[in-house]
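Worked Example 4.2. Read the sequence first, then its structure tokens.
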Amino acid sequence: MRTLFIAALVALLSSSWVTAMADGQGFAFKADGSEPIVHFTRLHHRVADVDDHQELSVYADGRVRVHTPSYMKNPGTFEYRLSDKAMQSVLGKLEAKGLMSFDQASAREQRATAAEARRAVDSERFHVSDLTATHITLNFASFGARNAKGTPVRNDIVWNDLPADALRYANVGVIAQLAEAERVLLALTDHSRRNATRITGGR
């Protein structure tokens, strides 16, 4: 009986959840930190280097892992931690930018409509050849009301040339907000301003 009780307790702890509050919203996610709750990469297509992307992983326990590619200042892989308050702030900012409910198909339709409208007015041609590719993955057990018993969130967002689209289609709110969310994540990749530990690379 004691063995069964211990096994049940271990199972309960291993599946436990962390709940964070941000701007009145509840986020629930796995407490074991086995996979990131936010994962972000930014690929630079015109960089002729195997190491061609920035990468950010944010875990439930506040751990942050950052990879800075070799062509950027202070390259390597680093880790630091966010305080509970800082974690809440980051999640609140991402939620405020609509990242939790971002509908990629709808955003692409809005972009196409805006592009057609511009062509009809001034016949202008605008082309950027895939300078960057943004990929954001969200992995929350739930998001919603204060009790954090909302809808599960697993969202994969892939967008080419987001900075250029944000400038070109500034009147398309969802694209502007996605670019603002990317800036929030890019700010987290700046490990130089944090008490970060180098894991690999660099000197």
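Now turn to a second chain, presented in exactly the same format:
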Amino acid sequence: MSNIFDLVFQEWSSSLKSRDRSKGAVTSNFEELFEKLKSSGASFEEAHAILPRATKAHHPIPSIARNSYKKLKSLVRNFDKSEKEYIEEWHKSIDDQGAQAFFESFPLPKLDEDNEPKAFGNMSVKEYKAQRKYADQFSTLDTAELEERMARREYDLDIEEMITHLLKEEDNG
């Protein structure tokens, strides 16, 4: 099946040479590719694998990019970008428009949607098991020994005596 998608991409890529590749036409060029892929039965993953090749195919060839930079630099007085910055920005703009067109045609798949009935509070059985698995990683606190130690000691909660004891410690210390 991926052969069909490769052929769709190859057809689109070869047709770019005769198409309008100006800034205003970039999105529509990508939309056409992704609509063809979608109508050919491409899944999200299959189409996403083609996205980097498609954006690269839409990038201008180096000589055109260089000539465009030189022409723009001669026309605009305060043009302060280097050729490399200008071309990188141009490529990023194409990449962004390609990604935008891709996600319009192929929305993100739902991530781990849990439609199970909620059995434990607001958790499904699957969520509860995942939480228990995580919690079981940690050792369980055994309070029996602590309770025994607390029971053996006698506590005098006479506040006045405690305050006088503390004051005596301060005077001696």
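Notes for the reader: The helical segments are 2-15, 26-39, 44-58, 62-75, 83-105, 125-135, 144-152, 159-172. The chain has a mean pLDDT of 84.
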